[in-house]
Amino acid sequence: MSASAFMRAVRITEHGGPEVLELTEVAVPAPQPGEALVQVSAVALNNTDLWTRQGAYGLPDDPKATSGWRGPIDFPRIQGADVAGRVVAVGTGVADSLVGRRVVVDPAIYDGEGPDAHPVGLMGSERDGGYAQYVTAPAERVHDVTRSPLTDEQLATLPTAYGTALGMIERGRLGTGETALVSGASGGVGIALVQIARARGARVIAISSGAKIDAVRAAGAHEVIDRAGDVTGQLRAAAPEGIDVALDVVAGELVGQGLPLLREGGRWVIAGALGGYDVAFDVRRLYLHNAQVIGSAMHTPAHFDLLMDLARQGAIRPVIAATFPLDQAAQAQEELSRRDHVGKIVMRP
Length: 349
Known about the structure:
The protein is an alpha/beta fold. It has 2 domains: 6-161 and 299-348, Quinone Oxidoreductase, Chain A, domain 1 (Alpha-Beta Complex); 173-295, Rossmann fold. The protein is 25% helix and 28% strand. It is built from 10 helices and 18 strands. Strands 3, 5, 6, 9, 10, 17 and 18 form a 7-stranded mixed β-sheet that branches. It has a 6-stranded parallel β-sheet with strand order 13-12-11-14-15-16, with helices on both faces. Strands 2-1-4 form a 3-stranded antiparallel β-sheet, with no helix packed on it. Strand 1 (6-12) and strand 2 (21-27) form a beta hairpin. Helix 3 packs across helix 4 (188-199) and helix 3 (158-171) crosses helix 9 (301-313).
């Protein structure tokens, strides 16, 4: 590839609505030492794309501040955390054998080198992402999945949604035979939670609504609670012995209502706040029953390695809701924000 090559990319130059997404031509990035250049086959959309574009993440001292995933972001920024593709070039210090391999990129930027490092940044927010024909990434974050039976679109859905889900399940120590509650079960992370928890041998009780209930059941939920009804009443009936692990991307009122449904030593894992971030609960329910409330942001490198093993085995089959071309990024994000779909929305650059 010539040094002067250009590519199509969708980037933002400010926070705002879908109108701030601009399709443009920019130089193909050159892989730096320790990096790989990936030709993007598919890029999946996430709520993180919407919230980074809107600047909706807030700051620790100012929850309403305009911010990317972890603070102010540099503009212009190419969005897109979830990339599947093929390595076409490598920087110095990276084995040439990686070139030509089919890969998934771990989008997390970590606070250290070890297997249990914490994510403190995200591709598409703190560095340029995959709403483009090419993207660079550190070679140690590029995972070879050449032999996976999954399609490129399915592979692209894995990093953020399935990585977040597996991080929740690992931090919540969900075991075979335990009962898991999944909130927001029709969303990208929700479907991932249902599929992975089911594959792990847990009994899965999911919360969803309306037309999406059948799709959540098809994804592997043993029982589906209609959130339009009496949620706690339905949960008590579905799990009279209690819940071992709650896998919650909704938060809000559900936390206070749901904590009394945990068994002794139960774990309530939170990785989202679709129902509101201002939460109240009776703290006696926590300490008198040895319960835990666990925050879970994405995954660790070790979690991502586990996820890539599942991908190579084809042990989970992601659900694709819709596919868009790159020049319809704004329409794709609007489709995502309507939340009428089940599964993941993907773009093909």
